[in-house]
Amino acid sequence: MIEYMQLFLGTSFSSKSPREIQILKDHLFCINTDGMIEKIVSPAEPDYQPLLDTYQDQDNFHRLAEGQYFLPGFIDLHVHAPQWAQSGTALDIPLYDWLNTYTFPLESKFSDLDFAKKIYDDVVDTLLANGTTTALYFATVHKEASLLLAQICAEKGQRGLVGKVVMDDPQGNPENYRDTDTHTALVDTEEFILAVKELAKSTKQGVYPVVTPRFIPSCTNEALQGLGDLAAKYDTYIQSHCSESDWAHGYVQERFQKNDAFALHDFGLLRDKSVMAHCNFLDEDDVNLFAETGTAIAHCPISNAYFANSVIPIAHFHAKGVEIGLGSDISGGFSPSLFDNIRQAVMSSRMLEDGVNPSLPAQERGLLGSRITIDESFYLATAGGGESLSLPIGRIQENYAWDVQIIDTKIPSARLPIFDGNEDLHDVFQKMMYLARPENIREVWVQGEKVHSR
Ligand SMILES: [Zn+2]
Question: How far is the CA of 343 from the centre of ligand 1 (A)?
Fold first, then answer.
């Protein structure tokens, strides 16, 4: 019999398709030394009992208690790690003031590595405790502090994709917080890419460098082209913001006489490994370009309620074949929890479908066909994120990484309202989606290693 590193017994929920949840009741999950799910065995299969007999008295056997369930770990496709220090503040002021009074002064402090370590340690711990096993991070313009964030992810066992932010245009950025000049921005980015690739060699769960122009308004054409070239040279991920708000959308139109998507594409910044945050104002041609190039959208529903001037038609974009995942957008979004963002994505889509202005007649108020279900929203936070990153993550399925959260529905301080021992499991799933809090997340595993427990 093959030796597995870990064997788990319990019930899992995972996406079978964007609309369907697959429930595996009382299955065995066999994890190999690489931290991958090598085999899933149902109670009806002949090797179920022999496996159970072999493993059940060993230390590497884990049987879930009654009321506990496996979910895939969440994939947060858009987090500004430094902004964790200001999460929940200043969301009532306009974007311009939010950036200049709060965000840029805060991010400029990450030249101090002691300060950076304090915040980055805490944000990685917090995201893990909220079930986020993979995160796509914006750091700051500082090369050393950005590398520190990658090292902290590596140490704590989170799968981190980290970008040193580029903002080199003296016109578009504050004097005390930007790259020294375009040349330095590109040299720093290249050194950062090489350092993270080196770190990745000793990191089981993976850590990845990400080419990160903040957004078009903060970058010169030379920097955008240079970053596109670096991404091609080293085959890296790319992240930025795209068509987020009326202002950003209008700015790019004025500078390039085209939409964000086509402007980014001209600089080589749309590729299979690209993830663009927000994308609320994509038009039909932009959406087709995203689908053709394999560029993914990081949908950040909480943040959008504050800064995007609109609700993104996610159901429509998904139907056009664009890869979409969820992002917390800390701290444009206040919550480090993708559970909160799953809920908001559903609620925002309902409001887009029905419309929100009661003085309009019902038939003119909304956008028909816009709603997504809780199952679809869960898909975005898990399998959709994995597809966006082209990594075998986000599903509890053979040949995927063992990245899971163990949800305890019976924890005394946060017991879910489940009163029938034989309650339909899809109903239990929906209750977890809407009601689970961090207290319910008993354990988090990444690549077969336990990285959080409570
Ligand atoms: Zn953002």
Answer: 19
**DSSP summary character for residue 94:** -
For residues 445 and 450, what is the distance between their CA atoms, to the nearest angstrom?
A: 4
* Distance (Å) from CA 241 to ligand 1 centroid: 6
For ligand 1, the distance from its centroid to the CA atom of residue 238, given in whole angstroms, is 14
Q: How far, in Å, from the CA of 276 to the mean position of ligand 1?
A: 9
Q: Where would I find the H helices in 270-424? A: 284-293, 301-307, 314-319, 338-354, 362-365, 374-381, 383-389
**Ligand 1 centroid, distance to 138 Cα (angstroms):** 8
Question: What is the distance in A from the centroid of ligand 1 to the CA of 262?
Answer: 20
Q: How confident is the model at residue 94 (pLDDT cuts 50, 70, 90)?
A: confident
- Residue 389 is which amino acid? L
pLDDT in tens, 283-301: 999 999 999 999 999 999 9
Reading phi first (left if > 0) and then psi (alpha if -120 to 50, else beta), residue 68 is in: beta
Average pLDDT over residues 73-90: 97
Name residues whose C-beta falls within 8 Å of residue 194's C-beta, 6 or more positions apart in sequence: none
Would you state the pLDDT for residue 42?
Answer: 98
Q: At 64, is the pLDDT very low, low, confident or very high (cuts 50, 70, 90)?
A: very high
333 Cα–ligand 1 center, Å:
9
Average pLDDT of the residues in 314-322: 96
Contacting residues for 122 by C-beta, under 8 A, at least 6 apart:
84
